[in-house]
């Protein structure tokens, strides 16, 4: 039932103009949070993970946050949730690092947290290694559709990090 409500919220958001608004983002984040909320202050819960937008621009390797990883994305709903977190935190959709990378230079993507790369949300024409440059890292909020873009890992952007809620519960006990 919860997933159905989440899908209805997302459907309403995109039926009303294909753009997420601050109100829809707040509704989405509020709905996704477990009432027991095992996430630390300033983090947002989605299923069994907590997410945080980090405003400080860093290179992709330096954005691997202490005690967390750059966020992996495993569904359309989770992708929209990350955009909601960014919008709530910044009021806009800045280019933002997530944890995807192409470690072997042949468009075989991985997540920095070791999870399966089982969802993609590329912007039109991406990934493309623009102008022949190697672009092995993924950012969100690219282009008119706020999709994913492959980018050089040495550029500095804010990021979204994630931690599993079960790790938090283990450290509390």
Automatic annotation (TrEMBL):
Residues 46-162 form the C-type lectin domain. Keywords: Disulfide bond, Signal. Pfam families: Lectin_C (PF00059). InterPro entries: C-type_lectin-like, C-type_lectin-like/link_sf, C-type_lectin/snaclec_domain, C-type_lectin_CS, CTDL_fold. CDD domains: CLECT (cd00037). Residues 1-17 form the signal peptide. PROSITE patterns: C_TYPE_LECTIN_1, C_TYPE_LECTIN_2. It comes from the Eukaryota. This is C-type lectin domain-containing protein. It comes from Oncorhynchus tshawytscha. The lineage of its organism: Eukaryota, Metazoa, Chordata, Craniata, Vertebrata.
């Amino acid at each position: 039932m919860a997933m159905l409500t989440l899908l209805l919220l997302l459907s309403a958001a995109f039926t009303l103009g294909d753009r997420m608004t601050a109100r829809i983002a707040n509704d989405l984040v509020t709905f996704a949070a477990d009432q027991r909320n095992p996430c630390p202050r300033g983090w947002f819960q989605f299923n069994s993970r907590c997410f945080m937008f980090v405003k400080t621009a860093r290179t992709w390797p330096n954005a691997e946050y202490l005690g967390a990883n750059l966020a992996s994305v495993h569904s359309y709903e989770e992708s929209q949730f990350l955009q909601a977190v960014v919008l709530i935190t910044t009021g806009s959709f800045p280019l933002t690092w997530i944890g995807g990378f192409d470690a072997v230079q042949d468009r075989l993507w991985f997540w920095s947290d070791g999870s399966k790369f089982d969802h993609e949300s590329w912007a039109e024409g991406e990934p493309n290694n623009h102008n022949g440059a190697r672009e092995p890292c993924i950012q969100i909020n690219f282009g008119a559709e706020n999709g994913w873009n492959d980018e050089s890992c040495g550029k500095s952007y804010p990021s979204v990090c994630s931690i599993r809620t079960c790790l938090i519960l283990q450290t509390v006990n």
